[in-house]
Fold these 3 entries.
Entry 1:
Amino acid sequence: NAGVTQTPKFRILKIGQSMTLQCTQDMNHNYMYWYRQDPGMGLKLIYYSVGAGITDKGEVPNGYNVSRSTTEDFPLRLELAAPSQTSVYFCASSYGTGGSGYTFGSGTRLTVV
Amino acid sequence: TQLLEQSPQFLSIQEGENLTVYCNSSSVFSSLQWYRQEPGEGPVLLVTVVTGGEVKKLKRLTFQFGDARKDSSLHITAAQPGDTGLYLCAGPVFSGGYNKLIFGAGTRLAVHP
């Protein structure tokens, strides 16, 4: 089982460039999430989706956008990269909300220079 | 704002030692989850505790949920190098009509042979 697949694994962007972080899951989960992980700060929720066509902001959404056109895919878009967006990004999915365990992808390490 | 505080932040021990790490909050949670994250990978769910006072065992790992459901602990008996990793606790927070997980900053454990 593939679970949650994220691409790319690593990326270096210049300030002002744009990119899309890809996330796909094959577990037919309705709920999907994007988190960023900074050293010593834990995981912070950027955006989440409760089903195809439905997305909402999390704790730290500024500078990011998402879309959910299918159950499987939940891409994260950075429009104008800034050094503050240097982080490790994790996509996750779950069968239910809250009390259900999340399945995470292996992450994308992004550096903005 | 609900927060999860984990302690200690870092722990370096020898193989065979016992250890306990803690996850504390001033808020009541309906459940708490523990994840382990290895370098270059996403967090992997270890256990969910739901009932106040609940104790769950996973081989050499013992998880306890506080009676008041504000804290949890993870005890590892006879630690092995394979236990090395970042241990994260997480709990559901209700906002925007849905529960989403918030995460503590984690305890980074290093077990030396």
Entry 2:
Amino acid sequence: EDQVTQSPEALRLQEGESSSLNCSYTVSGLRGLFWYRQDPGKGPEFLFTLYSAGEEKEKERLKATLTKKESFLHITAPKPEDSATYLCAVQATLGGGSYIPTFGRGTSLIVHP
Amino acid sequence: GAGVSQSPSNKVTEKGKDVELRCDPISGHTALYWYRQSLGQGLEFLIYFQGNSAPDKSGLPSDRFSAERTGGSVSTLTIQRTQQEDSAVYLCASSLWDADTQYFGPGTRLTVL
């Protein structure tokens, strides 16, 4: 069974204080790992897709990296508007099957001014 | 272009009533997913449609839940004889094809009194 564990569950940072969120996963064969941002009362917003170990992607203050067992979302010099819940999901390669992703419970990030 | 839309945004109902939740996916997206998100929980997969194939209903929690997708576009999730434990945010997502990035709607918040 595919599993995704995100840590920490909650993170409080001061504006400008860089940090990383972790997503550990177990999957029979990884097709893709996804990061989403979710603001209160809204649906998840797509950030990144990573497909293979060693891959990195960046967007503004966010950088996502991938190894064979985990992914990190690095936040550099965060601002209060980066406050949100960050979700990680993995999609397995299933021969002839469907590609239903497994989601973690998310990390709730609060950035104080 | 237009994103995924869901209606209603909020629904309050009495225990035992039936409810219908609607999802309009992004035009041209062949895959459509329904998820449920309860407070403090991750996204729980409910049902998945891909083109004209039979839907994957493996995530539906009971036979009170059903969904259909008409014309490969709009989808309706129906919950019969609602129970208080059905209270949650119901999210719909669509993707261009089944192994592609999912784009989420804003969700429907269901409250069963």
Entry 3:
Amino acid sequence: DTAVSQTPKYLVTQMGNDKSIKCEQNLGHDTMYWYKQDSKKFLKIMFSYNNKELIINETVPNRFSPKSPDKAHLNLHINSLELGDSAVYFCASSQVLAGGHGETQYFGPGTRLLVL
Amino acid sequence: GIQVEQSPPDLILQEGANSTLRCNFSDSVNNLQWFHQNPWGQLINLFYIPSGTKQNGRLSATTVATERYSLLYISSSQTTDSGVYFCAGDSSNTGKLIFGQGTTLQVKP
């Protein structure tokens, strides 16, 4: 059973299109995240949700909009895709303890987005 | 925000050799993890280690929280150990992991 799953694994699309990436975790965690890994392998957090509430919203263009229908799902919608959006997007989840201390974050397999 | 610096940036080993990877933090962290990104791009958890020492097979990690660094030891390296090793920490109690730039390890047969 996959703990954190993402769909699709690969996404090739044209500039200007709108696309979504879905993420689901079956670990019972209350917090989910989106990270972006650029072509130089640098990983940076984009968003996190705790029990469907937005907790972290980094300096990300507002073309990116996360949506959490329930605490097991966190989807990422991207409008008007640009060449610079090409990257690998990772979803992750963890349990956040009382006092805000986080535990191990588990990552999905990644979605490789290529914008042409 | 905190800065995370990893060294060395690149490492080439002969199979069977041992190595030590280092991670320095600019501020104290309360959540520290080591990951291995394999050649297929998958991020695999190695250790959750905000302090102390842990061992898992040929891998072990030590974090000295008061001195803001962590070490990952790989013993008797194998070709399957190749990939990029990342450390990441959270200083904000929000789960916001800040990643280092990674150490790219190549183990030659």
